[in-house]
Design goal:
The structure holds 2 protein chains of 2 kinds.
Chain A: E1 2-13, E2 16-27, E3 31-35, H1 42-50, E4 57-62, H2 71-76, E5 77-80, H3 92-102, H4 108-117, H5 131-144, E6 149-153, H6 161-177, E7 181-185, H7 189-192, E8 198-203, E9 206-212, H8 213-218, E10 220-225, H9 227-233, E11 239-245, E12 248-254, H10 259-267, E13 271-274, H11 277-284, H12 293-296
Parallel strand pairs in A: 3-7, 3-8, 5-6, 6-7
Antiparallel strand pairs in A: 1-2, 1-4, 8-9, 10-12, 10-13, 11-12
Chain B: H1 8-22, H2 24-40, E1 46-51, E2 56-61, H3 65-81, H4 85-91, H5 98-134, H6 150-180, H7 185-197, E3 201-203, E4 206-208, H8 210-215, H9 220-242
Antiparallel strand pairs in B: 1-2, 3-4
Classes of the chains: A alpha/beta, B mainly alpha.
Chain lengths: 301, 250
């Protein structure tokens, strides 16, 4: 069953486009990582899906309904980000109690256990928590709400490494028991790599990639060799990035090499390796390694 | 995972209680101001005297008009407060929709106006007690009293609650329209200005003043009908902007 489907969605903030021609669909109970550079339009996209914002053009369907202003979508989804505006006078305990009242699938016991595990006091107000503890509290809410559609927009902001790992593990464990559709946006692909099934890459206001993690890794190839050999072996191929590594160079290319071409590469002494997901993502979003070097390199050839 | 289907009325009730809990502070402020004014206003608002050769009469007037005015200003502020993004974002942390948000806000206004109305009218009683205890002079009360003239007392109460409720909803709806389009603040300011400056103006052939439309009504029943109609109209109007407002834009 398709939970989310977007067709030719466009979003403008007073004439400035932030999303253009976004079309994709997400199936039930899939954990999808949402990645993209700063300002690519990730948050806007997630807020449109959650029904907080209205698409300027195009069709958005969540649970077969337009999410904007929909009670069904609101009752079955939760959106966690680092700007949760809880009312000031209420303590965490009271806030959790409210979540329990509003969300039918709320797991009180799990919330309590997670609160204790992460050592977050109940009788304190949200604004008195540290940045990392705030994120942890929000993450607990997101997990315990057990909503059919759970959206985490950069949930780990400010969390320490241990808390991050614990959070991802808790999320995965609870997901296995109670599968649900999860959207998880993060700037740290390495961290979410193990729990996401699909990756949705937003780049320059558009969907740059939507598919499985392994397909993305296989879409690119990393080659190592001397400049001359690389030039010879990759004639007519699309080069994504070039980095100098001592005497050798490392080039990342789009992987459309035939077996014959691969043989030629090894004959030339070029080592080819699969990219890590992070490198593949960086290549996809035109963040070539060493790209910043060019800024300081005034004597460009 | 099967989807949860929630009843609108149930979610409205939950949002209403949530709004009451998260906005306790506004009532504390109201009570504090009312108590403060009750004490401050035990000075006479006017002192007069007359006399002849062998008789002199001096009298001072005391009134809780100040408390009534302050409570109406508070109502104005409440109407405004509920349109702020902070309030809306808090509702949308939980289950909400524009319709639910509006209805929960109206319920909140209902509760707030009853609390404000009752306390404002009763502040008169508190003032009487303070005056009785502190002043030595003969005490004459001409205000509506629950025991002496219960009908007048409840009329006062109903009027105060109605005005308070009307103000909240009026400001709420107006501010929602302003949020939809900032330029709409201009006609609203113009309307308020005309209402305060001119006692009567001609508008599409009808002469009148919006304030005196309510304020000048001497029949309680007609007043109730007018207020109910105005509230209903504002509630319907508020649907238009609220359906367009985007939430949780941090």
């Amino acid at each position: 069953m398709t939970v989310i489907s977007l067709n030719q969605v466009q979003k403008k903030y007073s004439r400035i486009p932030v999303l253009t021609n976004v079309t994709f669909s997400i199936k039930e109970n899939v954990i999808t990582g949402v990645a993209g550079r700063n300002g690519a339009g990730k948050t806007t996209l997630l807020k449109i899906i959650a029904g907080f914002m209205k698409a300027t053009e195009g069709d958005v369907q969540v649970f077969d309904e337009n999410p904007f202003g929909s009670l069904l979508v609101s009752a079955n989804s939760i959106y966690i980000d680092d700007a949760m505006s809880y009312p000031n006078p209420m303590k965490l305990q009271e806030l959790l109690h409210e979540f329990k009242r509003f969300y039918a699938n709320w797991n009180e016991e799990l919330a309590m256990r997670l609160m204790e595990y992460f050592a977050i006091p109940f009788d304190i107000r949200y604004q008195f928590l540290s940045k990392g503890k705030r994120s942890t509290f929000n993450a607990i809410v997101g997990i315990a709400a057990r909503c059919s559609l759970t959206i985490f927009d950069e949930p780990t902001t400010g969390m320490d490494t241990a808390a991050r790992n614990d959070f991802y593990r808790a999320l995965l464990k609870d997901y296995i028991v109670n599968p649900r559709t999860i959207l998880l946006s993060s700037h740290y692909i390495d961290e979410i790599q193990d729990i996401i099934e699909d990756l949705l890459v937003i780049h320059r206001k558009q969907v740059r990639y939507h598919g499985t993690v392994s397909d993305l890794q296989e879409a690119h190839l990393s080659l190592r060799g001397t400049k001359e050999h690389l030039t010879e072996g990759t004639l007519g191929k699309t080069i994504v990035s070039k980095t100098r590594r001592g005497l050798q160079e490392e080039w990342i290319l789009e992987n459309d090499f035939s077996d014959a071409e691969r043989t030629k590469l090894s004959r030339l002494g070029i080592a080819n390796t699969t990219l890590s997901l992070n490198d593949a993502y960086l290549a996809l979003t035109e963040q070539p390694r060493g790209g910043i070097d060019d800024v300081f390199d005034t004597q460009k050839d | 995972m099967s989807l949860t289907h929630r009843k609108t009325s149930e979610v409205v009730r939950q949002q209403f209680w949530f709004k009451l809990k998260s906005n306790v502070a506004v009532f504390t402020v109201l009570f504090a101001l009312q108590i403060l004014l009750s004490v401050l206003m035990t000075g006479p608002s006017s002192t007069s005297g007359m006399g002849s050769a062998n008789l002199e009469l001096n009298w001072s007037t005391y009134t809780n008009d100040g408390i009534i005015t302050m409570t109406l200003f508070w109502s104005l502020a409440i109407g405004f407060l509920m349109t702020t993004s902070g309030q809306r974002n808090a509702s949308y942390l939980y289950v909400a929709s524009p319709g639910i948000e509006n209805m929960a806000n109206f319920l909140f206004f209902g509760a707030a106006s009853v609390i404000a109305g009752v306390t404002a009218i009763l502040s008169g009683s508190i003032m009487k007690v303070i005056l009785l205890l502190t002043k030595k002079e003969q005490f004459v009360s001409d205000s509506a009293n629950l025991l002496v003239s219960p009908v007048d007392f409840f009329t006062q109460l109903a009027a105060m609650i109605s005005y308070s409720f009307l103000l909240m909803i009026l400001v709420y709806t107006a501010m929602l329209f302003v949020q939809m389009n900032r330029l709409l603040i201009l006609p609203i300011i113009l309307l308020v200005y005309l209402n305060t400056r001119i006692t009567s103006f001609e508008f599409f052939g009808a002469t009148g003043n919006i304030l005196s439309f309510f304020y000048g009504e001497s029949s309680l029943w007609l007043f109730t009908i007018k207020v109910t109609a105005a509230v209903a109209l504002l509630m319907v109007l508020s649907v238009i902007p609220s359906k367009r407002i985007e939430v949780r834009q941090a």
